[in-house]
Amino acid sequence: MLRAAGLIAMALAVAVPPVGAQTQTTVYVSPTGNDANPGTVSSAPVRTLERAQQLHANVVQLADGTYELSKPLTLTAADSGTTWRAAPGAHPVISGGSRVTGWYLSDPARNIWSAPVPAGLKTRQLYVDGVRAQRASGPLPVKLTSTTTGYTASADTLSHWHNPSAIEFVYPGGDRYWSLSTGGQGPWTEPRCPLASATGTTVTMAQPCWNNSTNRIMRTDTSGRTVNLVGPRTLGNNQVPGYVENAYELLDTPGEWYLDDTAHRISYLPKPGQRPAQSEIVAPRLETLVSGQGVSDLTFSGIQFSYATWLRPSTPEGLSEIQANYTLTGEHGADRQGLCQFVDKGACPYGDWTKEPGNLSFSGARGVRFTDDVFTHLGAAGLDLGTGAQDCEVRGSVFTDISGNGLELGGVDHPTDVRTSGNTIADNHLYGLPAEFHGGIPIVVGYSERSLITHNQIDHTAYTGISIGWGGWPDKIGKPATPNYSHDNTISANLITDTTQYLADGGAIYTQGITGSSIDTGEKITGNVISGQTGHGHAIYCDNGCTYLTIAGNVEYGNQNDWGATHANYTPPADGSTKDPLLIQDNYWQQGDADSAKNEVVIRRNHIITGPRQAPAATIANAGLEPAYRHLLTQQVGGRSAPQAPAQLATTGADGAVYVSFSSTFVDNGAPVDSYTVTAQPGGRSVTVSADQYREPHYVRVSGLSNGTAYTFTVTATNAFGTSAPSLPSAATKPSAANTAVPGAPTDVSVRVSGGNASVHWKPPAAVSGTSPVLAYRISAPGLPDTLFQGHTALWADSSRDTFTAVGGLVPGKTYVFTVTALNAAGPGQPGTAKPVTG
User: Fold this and answer.
1) Measuring CA to CA, how many Å separate 123 from each of 133, 270, 438, 761, 769?
2) What is the mean pLDDT of the chain?
3) Which residues contact residue 9 at a Cβ distance below 8 angstroms, ignoring those fewer than 6 apart?
4) From the centroid of its chain, how far is CA 794?
5) Which of 210, 208, 216 is nearest to 147 (CA)?
6) Judging by DSSP bridges, how do beta strands 26-29 and 59-62 pair with one another?
7) Over the stretch 168-189, which tens digit does the pLDDT of each residue have?
8) Are 190 and 237 in contact (CB under 8 A)?
9) Bond prior to 88 in cis (omega within 30° of 0)
10) Contact status, residue 666 vs residue 501, Cβ threshold 8 Å
11) Which has the closest alpha carbon to 96: 310, 307, 369, 408?
């Protein structure tokens, strides 16, 4: 009806043109067109987007095919009011890459193929038949001891590698358990630093990345905190990287590639059955596909944006991460950037660290709309609607295979003046993110007012699902959060599953900083359905300075923790004697919360459930994509291939066996993972389990091993299109008959009852010498079937962590005494017992 009314209005406008009226004009574009054509009829299209832009039409219609840009499409206020759209039935691709041709077999013994590339080509990504290939990577070839400028190596191996200054060390965060030693700048990060040189056994790291990552200045008080208040002073794991990337010498696994930018040559080790000369192999060239400054009333519809890179991590800046792919950059990144009032010459405002750019980037945009688009095969953030975006909309689009953040809204550089306002992110599917910079997040919002994030489906992420807010960390030292204009933002009816699959200390929805001036104007998190969080954190994460937040009507199950946490309120006139005001009500989840109204935190009418069937069906049905957009869930994006390899292997030995845990594959390349295979070396003994068999225990037991022999393990993932490359190997682990003691009793066992269900809480037993790690917990009560609690949390949580699960079937009025028993490879330990409760 609206479209018909619009056509009638246009007809009237033609019949009686009002003063100042503009005639509707369309420019047609085709990859087979000619820029000498007028472009005003579909039979004579122009060829390039640049020429179409010069013709200043109301509509630019793109025929099917790929539009390879020679430079970014740069839009200004003069381009306002234009709709860029796909022709009916077409699926145009705007590309910043070029096809690599001229492949030849350069190393027959290793089956390595090479091809020439233009001088000056620099890229961090390569795509083979629509699938991201893995840059050559592998474990450290030497032992490293950190120094003030880098490392001393146990051998001079790296100094003999080709082009050492191109080598990159990667420092994964994540949960540390068993043999897995994680690093990063906190478990939510994965920094990267290039080498400057390797001479003999001296490895010198690139500056300023090394200083920004290992020498963040500390406060001079007794807090023990960095001045930035976010993470630690230096990299974890004694500054030792988790793996190495981008060296020709690491090119040893099918599907890997390496760019020698001094010889202007790309090398690729094909997967079985691939023939590089017959494959479509694309190298991204541009860092920006589309940019807009001060534009308004623009629409992009039905277009795929692909093949762009991001080069800053390959420079001496590296990726010195703070959070959400915000980084420290420049000579004074560690001692001044974003430190404002906390140090002399601190750059303001506090928290203004360097944002990851978008491959599509807009600043000060008004009324810019993206509908039915695809953002994929991208090397930075996908889309950045930056500071000052107002009344913009992203709807019905797909975000996947993006190196960093998916969609960025607003920024953190103007907390009080330039406003990001009235934007909508709705009915999008964001999944398998991020593909390279794993601290990235599908949706990241800085300071914002009246923004609506609703009916999106977000699944299979390395870290957090949605992040909103900034600047709350000063409450750690009794100072107020950064004043900002944020208010009336809503995150509602999203379906978020399988988050923190690689890193940790995140959430499905993460928020921090001041969200409004009252509960009425503060942020609302309502009607979301959240499940399957792996790494530790909170499904709904209320972090530092999170003030005036409402959490209501959400459904959560199968998460490490459902919500948390409260913080002392230092926002004037508060003085820290009360908590940041929160309203938490009418949620359905498993951790159980007694009604209370203390210290400005109101908790009421929340329900304990054992799973989604006990939650309101209407909430479950309403979450995620609305019916008109559910076709996005089956839309094929990119090529189909074997999944990415699993990662983050952790091992622990038992008598004649080793238990192997790992991060499940979250990038499946077009088909769900069916199974995992764990292989031991030496000997090659392997065990295959289905993905469903692995999901609950979160480990695989490899038996038949020899006690005292050091084994390493790799894991592959298999889907309908093949088997992944092997993971990086685990740390060496020896089976042993020595650890035969059963675990101790869990402590602080307590039970909360609601609606016939019980939320049972405990703290794991303390680790004791001679005791192997806990593998699971058994929850028991007379008259109820036992519940077995398994999974990542059972393996990772130590004696300081509150752990819980929900048990159903309680009879009203009946008394129950619950026990929790830890189980390890030696068997069950002594139970911990809770006080009696009544159903």
Assistant:
1) 12, 19, 18, 50, 49
2) 95
3) none
4) 23
5) 210
6) parallel
7) 999 999 999 999 999 899 999 9
8) no
9) no
10) yes
11) 307
